[in-house]
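Lecture 7 notes. Example A: sequence first, then its structure tokens.
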Amino acid sequence: MSDILDVKGLKKAFGGREVLKGLDLAAARGEVIGILGRNGSGKTTLFSILLDLVSADGGSAEVLGLRPDGSGRLRGLIGYVPEKPAFHGFMTAGEVLAFRARFFPRWDMPKALDLCKKLELDPAAGVAAMSKGNLAKLAWITAVAHNPELLLLDEPTSGLDYLVRDHILNGLIHELTEGGRTIIVSNHRMGEMGGILDRVCVLKDGVIAASHGAAFLAEEAFRAAARLETPLSLPEGVVALGGGGALREFAVFGRKNLEKLRLDPAFAGAEISPLLLEDSFKVLLGE
């Protein structure tokens, strides 16, 4: 059993629509996992169950040695950045931090204020007038100021300009190097997370449909372009990409599968090149 997260057969339905259909997921201490899935695939529902905000219909989840039981204990131990952060509009950033500190025994106010300085967020700034970027900064600060062992990040850089994205990503790297946090992140721009991910899990049809090491995707994903005169059945680990006529392109996962493909006379003279990480993610999603 994992010492941070152990999810088995998790199920959840809303109004008769099954969102999670027996999902299994485990995370070890210090591991960074990217959850890849289309909108509506169940990423936010998974996070809500882990945070004890929503109860599961079936299966089990153990987080930091505790099970979600409706008590809310887990919320004090997890750092969470929602896709759309929301705070009391009548407060300033500093007041938000002081308010949050009352709910987290391990809250580190010097760390929170230091992060405000690093992220160029004025504690006196009013929440109601904040830009999306500053709201994202405040969400990040409130997620890590109590030094949680587990961070759940739901689209943490979505819609942000490059400077704010860099701030958030640098913060992620700092938390990893300084605290060894376990991080589970869902992000449409998963390519920008490539340098810190240990593993990528594909959430599809309510289950984890595939799991790949990030190093595998970076080193053993290829694009093969070949001129094919007749259709052929594709071997394991090979996915057809776009292209018309006889000139076809394929994604190939795994060096062994690439070597098998090269033995096929139909692929004689095929042009092989690395498949970009972002393109690998699109293939895994079926885009």
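Example B, a different protein, same format:
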Amino acid sequence: MRARSPLTYFAAIAACALGINGHAFAAPQVITMDAAYLEYAKQRIAAEDPGLRPAYAKLMEDAQALLKVAPESVTYKKIVPASGDKHDYMSLAPYWWPDPSKADGLPYIQKDGKFNPSAKNGDSDSVRMQIMCLGTQNLSLAYYFSSDKRYAEKTAAFIRTWFLDPKTRMNPNLRFGQAVMGRVDGRGTGLIDTRNFWMVIDAVALIEPAGILTPAEVSELKTWFKDFGTWMLTSETGIEEYNAFNNHGTYYDMQIANYALFAGDLKTARQAVLRAQDLRIAAQVSAEGKQYAELERTTPFHYSAFNLDAMENLARYGEQLKVDVWKRRNTTRGIKNAINYLAQFAAKPETWPYPELEGKPETELALSVMLRAERAYGGGGYANVVAQLPATRFNTQEIIAMSKLLGTEQPTTLNSIDRLIWPVLPRKQ
């Protein structure tokens, strides 16, 4: 069988397609997700497709639980950043621990790959940030698939509390991200904390038909992201992260492109994507498809997939800017090489040739990587890899910490959501 070209399939179900009840709908103006794939998933769910029903049931179960969760704010943290302003985001570096040889534990020492539990609790903002981002994504998708306005209202409440309400809003900077006690008040590496803000931006588009966020609020939100992007590009902290030669640098450009697209600054977005083709992808991917900066980590499979996640988002933004990242250097040092290298091991983690901290690789992120590879290329065996990947709960330390802070089961299962966002399209003979 020959695979239907996934990116050209867009025309068949995008724009003004017919909804599941035969009514015309306006495709949501999502930036990272794909409106055509979302609509296809909606149609499959309505048709009781057994391949998506479990993921949809889990999405709605989590969304129902999130209706009872109060919106989060940076002002709720217990620790006050060096500025004295709780509106400034603050997180603690996850791999830094008190020095046991010092009475006060200062300065902290590094243990790569080992999370310090104190960095993932309610004292600072990192877990609250993920509750807000992941919860916003879950609720907005629940609204999109069900048309139940309760989920749109809760999505808007999450967004207003974190970004818009003067009493609880976050200042548009990360000056105090990933602080190391006894060493620095904040670091450029802290910018990785906001990597999931794309979920908020797409959520705005998904709930737009509900009419809950006003045009003035959306405009204010765009201004917030424009200001945040400007801070990233011009601050000493932001420039430090720009110079990172690993996944941190990739997520930096991914965020710049995403925020600029949302704010309507196509020039800045295009510059970020063009830069990323060589500085983030070709410079980090070997001819074999290995990402050596990530393979040096104590959890190399996870970090290889993690970096690819940002690269694929950049390629998605390139589609909207007429920059074809997917095909750039697709035989040497390109994104496809890196995808193909991981594809060999994603469904057979026991064959992974690098040592892992826990003895076996963390492969949950491979699902998202392979689903989007199938969308971009098709026919390369990616759908076969996807079919072999289990529907597992995404047990990262952040997700576990979220459930503890909320006092509930994990509120979002990314592995399930990926199957709804990027469904495998049918093939033709």
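Note on Example B: Residues 163 and 169 are 5 Å apart (CA to CA). Residues 1-6, 8-24 have pLDDT under 50 and may be disordered.
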